[in-house]
Amino acid sequence: SVMMRVRKLFKGDYYQLTPVTLDDRDWFAYRLHMPETGEGAVISFRRENCPVNSANYLLPELSPDTEYTFEDLFENKSFTATGGYMAENGLDISLKNRRSVSVIYYAPIK
To answer: DSSP letters of the chain?
Structure first.
């Protein structure tokens, strides 16, 4: 399950990716990161009255020269990118339905 994949990450670092707000027209997103292993997850929510169906989050804390696998745990899609690319271009998240969530798990390729 998705929760089983990410629960260990809650012991690591926490990065808020969006302002904290109760406005149901805003996205809410954060990142969990395990510095020891380089693993992490970007968890983002499209709220009930949010008119925007996509968001982009820069990930500057990733190691620039390291290649990572990014896996969408709900869509079963994955891709690879360097930490430098994600710091400069960011992670694109698209959620066509309101009141939905995305969980993107990442790990360095060894």
So the answer is: -HHHHHGGGGGSEEEE-S-----TTSEEEEEEE-TTT--EEEEEEE-TT----EEEE--TTS-TT-EEEEEETTTTEEEEEEHHHHHHH-EEEE-SSSSEEEEEEEEE--
